[in-house]
């Protein structure tokens, strides 16, 4: 699921002297000494799709003096559980992606990620009068917490793609590039039948209104969306495990609601044993007509029985091979194990969510239900190919824990992310353009590699390529509203996590960008309010101008 940690090599002092102010800071960036190996050859049909039309050679331009630089290749950073003294919650910390020189590595490769837990968790922290821990902030989960407009998918493809760019509102020397991928949604009434097993943590730590209370409310919300084609089981775990509701027709609303009401919190936490029992229930109802999924509702604590991460991942691996996926939904603060919930969801070929309110529960189990449960494409990898004659340097904002080696893009045994029906995946880059770049020249292209929803591990993947349609907008203000709002969401997250490049960005300016593109959308207006609240918590004056 995650890329392997690559051995780190420091840049020599001689090169650092030659690079001057551009020398990397080891505490902020991850480097390898050698250039990355070339990726496997591109399929002929993909190469043809990306082949540019013949063009006249550009007029000669002055070439600046060359500087010898040892270039960094971004790699997945091993997560470190970072306890928060103020809350007792734990999160996996990742170093922000470094700047990459395009001449040395024009490819940026990562797995699709549609999780939104980081944004919801951070929202709860800010609403409660505190800034979220830096390790809790995932840029991509802030950006993907909001829907954006997409056209129809290209004929024969499950994906609609957008790739655009504009001058950065935060640094006049930089541009922002947006790469968005989406699958079309479908009405709730048209979704595929589901074989669902809810694994509910009823240990003592869940005995709070914002934990088990909110989990029960979430399940009640779901019941109205269940039908005769669905199968639902309810398994609990505390010091021991129990099948509270064996597989039951989704039409039996009264029986399901009665089982939910019987849930009570008490005892220790045997999550591993609960996983085993939940997968047994799911396997018993496996069907080619219905997708099977275990959904864990918990604060992530695990202290009895098979509780080590390796043991639980092995249980999930066996279930995934049998055709049962897993998603996680987190609740509460104080002992929330965010890093565990995220890893379980990723390993289970599912998603990771966090519910902080009744409104969030309603949205997840109504508006977002189809996307959460029905897979449109699996093992989805994205590879952005920047044109070195147009883009001098780039950095990917977020997706640090989803990095994939460029050479593994076409290695289909390397696992990646799942994209649901109606899901969107948006990535933001900060780039520095070359002197040759212009408003009429595209900056690159994106390739997507994926498997069909029911494809097996040995089945081949499909690959599609999408070229950027046009060059960057002349000004940030003239760029599409979605690009500008996504830039605000990414900028806000980058500031909250303390990224080096965002240290001089103003939350006041970021709020202004979000406000200008929020319109009447309640979720977008909420983000504006969160940015303003975070600005006050940071003690940043409203009229602060970025230095």
Explain this structure to me?
There is one protein chain. With 547 residues, this protein is of the alpha+beta class. It folds into two domains: 13-185 and 376-538, no CATH class; 188-373, Rossmann fold. It contains 14 helices and 18 strands. The protein has helices at 13-19, 44-50, 117-127, 139-143, 209-223, 253-261, 271-283, 309-321, 338-347, 358-367, 369-373, 481-496, 507-518, 522-538; strands at residues 80-83, 90-93, 100-101, 107-111, 160-167, 175-182, 194-201, 231-237, 241-249, 291-298, 324-330, 352-354, 375-386, 391-397, 417-420, 424-433, 444-451, 462-467. The chain has a six-stranded mixed beta sheet with strand order 9-8-7-10-11-12, sandwiched between helices. Strand 7 (194-201), helix 5 (209-223) and strand 8 form a beta-alpha-beta unit. Helix 5 (209-223) runs antiparallel to helix 6, helix 5 packs parallel to helix 10 and helix 7 packs parallel to helix 8. It is globular, with a radius of gyration of 23 Å. The two termini are 40 Å apart. Mean pLDDT is 84; it is low at 1-40, 52-78 and 81-86.
């Amino acid at each position: 699921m995650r890329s392997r940690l690559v051995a780190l090599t420091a840049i020599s002092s001689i090169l650092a002297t030659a690079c001057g102010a551009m020398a990397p800071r080891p505490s902020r960036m991850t480097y390898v000494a050698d250039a990355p190996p070339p990726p496997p050859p591109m399929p002929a049909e993909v190469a043809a799709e990306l082949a540019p039309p013949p063009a006249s050679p550009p007029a000669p331009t002055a070439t600046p003096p060359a500087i010898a630089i040892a270039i960094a290749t971004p790699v997945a950073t091993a997560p470190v559980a970072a306890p928060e003294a103020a809350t007792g919650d734990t999160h996996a910390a990742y170093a922000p992606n470094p700047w990459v020189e395009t001449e040395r590595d024009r490819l940026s490769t990562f797995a699709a990620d549609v999780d939104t837990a980081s944004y919801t968790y951070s929202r709860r922290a800010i609403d409660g009068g505190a800034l979220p821990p830096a390790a809790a902030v995932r840029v991509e989960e802030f950006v993907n917490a909001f829907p954006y407009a997409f056209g129809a998918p290209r004929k024969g493809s499950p994906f609609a793609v957008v790739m655009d760019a504009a001058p950065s509102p935060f640094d006049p020397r930089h541009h922002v590039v947006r790469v968005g991928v989406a699958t079309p949604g479908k009405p709730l009434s048209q979704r595929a039948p589901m074989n669902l097993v809810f694994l509910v943590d009823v240990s003592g730590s869940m005995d709070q209104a914002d934990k088990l209370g909110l989990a029960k409310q979430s399940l009640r919300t779901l019941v109205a969306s269940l039908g005769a084609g669905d199968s639902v089981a309810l398994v609990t775990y505390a010091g021991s495990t129990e099948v509270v509701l064996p597989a039951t027709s989704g039409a039996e609303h009264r029986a399901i609601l009665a089982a939910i009401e019987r849930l009570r919190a008490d005892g220790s936490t045997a999550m591993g044993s609960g996983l085993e029992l939940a997968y047994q229930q799911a396997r018993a109802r496996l069907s080619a007509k219905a997708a099977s999924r275990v959904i864990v509702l918990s604060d992530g604590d695990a202290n009895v029985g098979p509780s080590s991460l390796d043991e639980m991942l092995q249980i999930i691996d066996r279930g995934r091979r049998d055709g049962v996926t897993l998603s996680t939904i987190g609740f509460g603060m104080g002992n929330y194990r965010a890093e565990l919930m995220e890893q379980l969801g990723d390993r289970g070929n599912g998603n990771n969510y966090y519910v902080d309110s009744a409104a969030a529960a309603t949205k997840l189990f109504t508006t977002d239900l189809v996307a959460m449960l029905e897979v449109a494409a699996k093992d989805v990898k994205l590879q952005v190919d920047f044109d070195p004659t147009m883009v001098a340097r780039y950095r990917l904002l977020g997706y640090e824990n989803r990095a994939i080696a460029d050479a593994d893009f076409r290695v289909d045994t390397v696992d990646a992310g799942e994209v649901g029906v109606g899901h969107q995946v948006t990535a933001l880059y900060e780039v520095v353009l070359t002197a040759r770049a212009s408003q009429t020249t595209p900056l690159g292209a994106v390739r997507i590699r994926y498997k069909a929803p029911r494809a097996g591990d040995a089945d081949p993947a499909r690959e599609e390529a999408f070229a950027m349609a046009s060059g960057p907008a002349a000004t940030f203000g003239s760029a599409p509203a979605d690009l500008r709002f996504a830039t605000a969401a990414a900028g806000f997250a980058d500031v909250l996590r303390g990224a080096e490049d965002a240290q001089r960005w103003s939350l006041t300016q970021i709020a202004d960008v979000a406000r200008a593109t929020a319109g009447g959308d309640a979720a977008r207006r909420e983000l504006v309010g969160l940015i303003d609240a975070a600005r006050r918590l940071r003690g940043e004056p409203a009229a602060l101008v970025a230095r």
